[in-house]
């Protein structure tokens, strides 16, 4: 794992929370995106070299909706950048970690993602992120 890629924060209202975090971090949202595979709407902010991802449920059955019902707004996950997500998934499985998906899937911000179950990671939901390379034809 190379570095912390971002910290994900579950929110009830992306617009209101976006405004709050823009004021708090003295920056602006630089990107919003719908992620149909996860049933979420996201907004990204920079804080120095770090990124914050705000996540709002776009469906009542989404993992974010369930998280908000159970725990309320707050830190949802920590994401780490990796060079080879499939190799990192295999390494973690061999170390006994439980993955929430068997194959990487497309996430927000042009990334392939995979989640590590919090029960096998000390209660923390961990996301692996690999930048999707563009074909240069």
From TrEMBL:
The enzyme's E.C. designation: 5.1.99.1
SUPFAM superfamilies assigned to the protein according to its UniProt record, in alphabetical order: Glyoxalase/Bleomycin resistance protein/Dihydroxybiphenyl dioxygenase
Molecular functions (GO terms): dioxygenase activity; metal ion binding; methylmalonyl-CoA epimerase activity
Keyword Manganese set for record: no
Keywords of the record: Isomerase
EC category name: isomerase
Alphabetized InterPro entries for the sequence: Glyas_Bleomycin-R_OHBP_Dase (IPR029068), MeMalonyl-CoA_epimerase (IPR017515), MMCE/EMCE_epimerase (IPR051785), VOC_core (IPR037523)
Tagged with keyword Isomerase: yes
GO biological process, one term: L-methylmalonyl-CoA metabolic process
PROSITE patterns, per the entry: VOC
Official protein name in the record: Methylmalonyl-CoA/ethylmalonyl-CoA epimerase
Organism from which the protein derives: Mucilaginibacter gotjawali
């Amino acid at each position: 794992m190379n570095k912390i890629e971002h910290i994900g924060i579950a929110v009830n209202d992306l617009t209101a929370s976006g405004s709050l975090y823009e004021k708090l971090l003295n920056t602006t949202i630089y990107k919003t995106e719908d992620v149909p595979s996860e049933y979420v709407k996201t907004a990204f902010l920079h804080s120095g070299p770090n990124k914050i991802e705000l996540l709002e449920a776009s469906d009542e059955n989404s993992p974010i909706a369930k998280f908000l019902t159970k725990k309320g707004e707050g830190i949802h996950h920590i994401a780490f950048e990796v060079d080879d997500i499939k190799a990192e998934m295999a390494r973690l499985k061999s170390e006994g970690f439980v993955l929430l998906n068997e194959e990487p899937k497309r996430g927000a911000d042009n990334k392939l993602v995979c989640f590590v179950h919090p029960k096998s990671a000390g209660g923390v939901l961990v996301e692996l992120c690999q930048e999707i390379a563009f074909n240069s034809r």
